[in-house]
Structure formats: C-alpha cells, structure tokens
Amino acid sequence: MAPRAFWKGYLKLSLVTCPVAMIPATSESDKVRFHTLNRATGNRVVSRYVDAVTAKPVDEADEVKGYPRDAENYVMLEDEEIEAVALESTRTIDISTFVAKESIDWVWLDRPHYLFPDDPVGEQAFSVIRDAMAETKTVAISRLVLYRRERAVMLEPRDKGIVLWTLRYGDEVREPDSYFADIEAGAPAAEMMKLVTSLIDKDTKPWNPKMTSDPVQDRLLEIIAAKDRPKPAAKESKAKPSEGAQVIDLMAALRKSLGSKAAPRKR
pTM of this prediction? Predict the structure, then answer.
C-alpha cells in the first residue's frame, strides 16, 4: 500500500491546471532510533528548554524566535510574522520558467519528491506537461512553500511521473574555484593513466541499491534482537557428578586444549 501523500495541490502551466499530490522520495522511517532513558527507572527522559541565564524552565508559550543582533542581543520575531513573509504558493506549483536539464549542476539539488496526478480527470494535463519536458529535454522551475519555508523547486520528468526537487538557496552553495583552483591541470603520465583506467574497467559493475546498505544499522538490529530475546531458564541437572568425574572432565578439557601442542607421555 502506497504511503499517504503529505502535500496536495495543483500543477499549473499557463491555462492548464491539474490536481496533484506529492510525497518525499526518500524516507528515514526504518532507521534505528533511540530514546534517552533514566537508567535507574527505565523511564524516558523529557527534554525542556531552560533559560541560559536563570536556568529556569521556559513555558512553550514564552518561546520565541530570535535573530542575533550581536553576541548578547536578539531581534525577536513571532511565528505569525515569519509565516506572513511566505508566498501564497502553498498549494499551487505555477510553472513560469523552463531551463535545459543539463544546465543545473547536481550540487543545487536538495530533496527529491514524487509528484503524481491526484485525480483521473487531470491525468491527461499532467501527462502533457511531463512528456513535453521530456521531449524538449528541459526541466521546470517554480516556487513553493514547503517545510514552512518558501523555496525554488525543479520539476523533472521521470517515467510516468515527475520528480520535484527542492533547490538549495544561493548562500548554501560554495563556489568550487576556491578549492580546485590550485590543483595542477597537467595531463597525467600515459602509463599511469592506462593502469588506473584498467583498474576502473575491472571493478565496474551495474548499479545496485544494495551498494548503499548500512552495515552499522544491521549490526545494531542484531544487538537489539539479542538483548530482547528471552533468556532460556537454566535446567537443573538430574544427577550431580562426583568430584572424581569433575577432575576427569577437567583433565580431558586440558588435554584437548593442548592436543596439537604436546601429546601425553607414556608411562
């Protein structure tokens, strides 16, 4: 069963409009997560905001966003003031610009979402927009309010649907020239180049999502399962061995341990 859509609205291009739904293309719901507990009681620990100066707890009604004016002073902004700045594009993806697909570098791509028709009547309009972008090898740029912030988004045709990428803000992307400019651009030695390309050819395999498996999480799940498994009750022995039998068993164990190192002497 497909997960429930977390966003519903409209895809609009000029006079063409169709209802659409969207869901994040990635999920972390299967990640191993931990709660902080009180070791003594086994109860969960509740975190609270406290005043950095008075050390007293702060009620939720008294919490407010603050922009640092300097090290000690802040400009306070209410949630309503922050939300009022956002566009009204909370429910409409209004396409106004198309760009060549290869012109957007991967570093600008932030978070992918699957966009699909939310009504059989609108499937034709959705398909026309999708197929036209695929044929012209373009992607659409729009703006949308997601995760309580207005952001630029890119729509890319993919199979029968559209992938909507949120794009990073301009101040989040560093220019590569500052880091790559001092690297020498000279061509490597031909012999070395031949050797490395041979290694690449040898180790090239088809892409498989299993290449991104998380071995740490797998091991954590094994540890959790082992701790959660009920321990078997100790069985009482029916016959208590005599002291002599214990000595014989111990000698047998010692001889077995030393077996390959030294054979017992003959009398």
Answer: 0.68
